[in-house]
C-alpha cells in the first residue's frame, strides 16, 4: 500500500459547511457506521448531514449546501444520491471546472488508548457515467490533530496524507453520459482497506476525506454508502449483494458476503416507512470465512404495499452492522390463473390485474430449461393466453410470468 504525503495549498476559493460535530470513538472494539439515510432526499440546497460529517467545495461555483440527485444531471456539486425520494441515500459528488467537492468525517479518539491502525470499509456506488471511456476517481486522504480544523471548517491547506489504496475508481465507462442506478450490483463495489503506522493519541481527532478531482470531460457521479470504521481489527462482514424477489404471495430475500469475521448470525428486518424496523427472522452466519457465502430468507407473510427490508449482521460479541435498505411493492404482483391443471395439450393462462407492459411467459422444466417462451404485449386488464405444448413430455413444469417489475411462478402438471 503506497502512502504519499501531500502539502495542499489551494489558491481556489474554499466554501465550507459549518464546523461539523465529531463522532466519538469510545472503545477500540467499537465499529462506527453510517448509512446516510438522514441526508436530504429532495431539493438543490440541502444542509443536513450525519453527525461528524462535513462537505467543502473548492472553486468559484462552490457553496455550503448539497443537492439530491439520481445521476441524470451533470452539474458540479456535492450530492445525496438515490432513486427519487427513496430514503436509501449515499454521499457523493460530480466535479466540474468550477466546483471540486470534498467531503468526510471527524472521529475523536475517546477510547483511552493509543491507536496505531484503523480499517475503513464502504460501498462505492456509481450514479452517473460522464460519457468518457477513461476512469474517474475519488481520492482518499486522512489527517490527525486539531490543525485540520480551520476557521470553523476543515482546513484543506494542511499536511493531509494521500492514501492511494483507499482511492475510489469508476466501475462503469461509456461513450455517452447518462444516469445509473448505483444500487445495482453492476454499478457498485465494496472497498475495504487498512491504514497502519499512525499515532492517534487519546483525545486526538482523526479526519477522513474524499476529494473529487475534476477529470476533464468525465463527470462521473461517485459516492460512498454503508460506511464502516473500526480500530485494530477487521470489519465483521464484507457485503457482496442483497436482493429481493416477489414470488406469488411471498418475498424471497437473497444476500451474500465476500468475507466474515466473528459473524454469529443475521437478523432479517422489515418496515413500512424505512424508519421503524421489526425483526421477522434469523439466519445463522458462518463465523470466520474468507470465501463468498450465500444466504436466503423467505417472508411468507409479506405486508401489503411498499415494504422495506434490511439485514442486521450480529457478531458473537453482540456488535452489529447493517446492509443497505431494499424495497419491494407487493401490490404490483400479477396473479396468474392456470387451467386446466393438470393439462394435456393446451394450457390457458389468465393474468389478473395485469399492467399494460410487455410480459414474458415461460414454461420451465425441472432442470431449469425453458421449454416454451412467449413475449406478450398486454393491452387489456385481464388477458388470456393459450400455450400449445402438446409435444412436451408428461411431467412437472413451472409457469414463469414476468415483466420489468415483477415475477410470479406457478407449478403445473402435464399428463
Brief synopsis:
By secondary structure, the chain is mostly beta strands.
Based on Cα principal axes, name the global outline. Answer: globular
Radius of gyration: 25 Å
CATH topology of the largest domain: Jelly Rolls
Mean pLDDT: 82
Span of the ends, CA to CA: 64 Å
Give the uncertain stretches in residue-range form: 1-19
Query: Count of helical segments?
Result: 0
What's the architecture of the largest domain, going by CATH?
A: Sandwich
Number of domains: 3
Bin the strand percentage: over 45%
- How would you sum up the major sheet? 9 strands, mixed
The CATH top-level class label of the largest domain: Mainly Beta
Q: Using DSSP, what is the number of strands? A: 33
**Helical content band:** under 10%
- Secondary-structure-based class equals mainly beta
Amino acid at each position: 500500500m503506497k502512502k504519499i504525503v501531500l502539502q495542499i495549498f489551494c489558491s481556489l476559493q474554499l466554501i465550507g459547511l459549518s464546523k461539523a460535530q465529531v463522532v466519538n470513538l469510545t472503545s477500540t472494539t467499537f465499529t462506527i457506521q453510517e448509512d446516510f439515510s438522514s441526508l436530504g432526499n429532495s431539493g438543490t440546497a440541502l444542509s443536513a448531514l450525519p453527525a461528524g460529517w462535513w462537505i467543502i467545495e473548492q472553486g468559484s461555483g462552490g457553496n455550503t449546501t448539497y443537492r439530491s440527485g439520481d445521476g441524470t444531471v451533470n452539474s458540479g456539486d456535492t450530492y445525496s444520491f438515490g432513486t427519487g425520494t427513496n430514503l436509501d441515500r449515499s454521499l457523493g459528488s460530480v466535479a466540474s471546472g468550477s466546483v471540486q467537492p470534498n467531503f468526510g468525517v471527524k472521529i475523536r479518539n475517546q477510547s483511552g488508548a493509543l491507536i496505531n491502525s484503523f480499517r475503513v470499509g464502504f460501498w462505492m456506488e456509481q450514479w452517473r457515467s460522464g460519457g468518457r471511456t477513461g476512469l474517474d476517481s475519488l481520492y482518499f486522504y486522512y489527517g490527525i490533530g486539531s490543525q485540520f480544523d480551520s476557521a470553523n471548517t476543515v482546513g484543506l491547506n494542511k499536511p493531509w496524507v494521500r492514501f492511494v489504496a483507499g482511492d475510489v475508481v469508476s466501475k462503469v465507462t461509456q461513450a455517452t453520459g447518462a444516469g445509473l442506478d448505483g444500487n445495482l450490483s453492476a454499478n457498485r463495489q465494496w472497498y475495504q482497506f487498512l491504514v497502519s503506522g499512525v499515532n492517534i493519541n487519546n483525545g486526538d481527532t482523526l479526519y477522513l476525506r474524499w476529494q473529487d478531482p475534476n477529470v476533464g470531460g468525465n463527470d462521473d457521479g461517485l459516492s460512498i454508502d454503508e460506511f464502516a470504521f473500526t480500530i485494530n481489527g477487521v470489519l465483521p462482514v464484507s457485503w457482496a449483494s442483497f436482493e429481493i424477489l416477489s414470488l406469488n404471495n411471498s418475498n424471497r430475500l437473497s444476500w451474500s458476503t465476500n468475507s466474515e469475521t466473528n459473524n454469529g448470525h443475521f437478523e432479517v428486518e422489515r418496515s413500512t416507512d424505512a424508519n421503524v424496523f421489526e425483526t421477522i427472522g434469523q439466519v445463522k452466519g458462518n463465523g470466520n470465512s474468507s470465501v463468498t457465502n450465500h444466504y436466503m430468507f423467505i417472508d411468507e407473510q409479506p405486508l401489503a404495499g411498499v415494504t422495506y427490508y434490511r439485514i442486521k449482521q450480529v457478531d458473537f460479541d453482540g456488535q452489529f452492522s447493517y446492509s443497505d435498505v431494499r424495497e419491494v411493492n407487493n401490490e404490483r404482483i400479477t396473479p396468474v390463473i392456470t387451467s386446466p391443471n393438470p393439462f394435456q395439450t393446451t394450457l390457458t393462462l389468465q393474468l389478473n390485474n395485469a399492467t399494460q407492459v410487455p410480459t414474458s411467459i415461460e414454461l420451465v422444466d425441472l432442470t431449469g430449461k425453458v421449454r416454451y417462451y412467449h413475449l406478450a404485449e398486454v393491452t387489456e386488464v385481464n388477458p388470456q393466453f393459450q400455450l400449445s405444448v402438446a409435444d412436451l413430455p408428461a411431467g412437472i413444469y413451472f409457469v414463469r410470468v414476468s415483466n420489468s417489475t415483477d415475477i410470479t411462478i406457478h407449478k403445473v402438471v402435464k399428463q
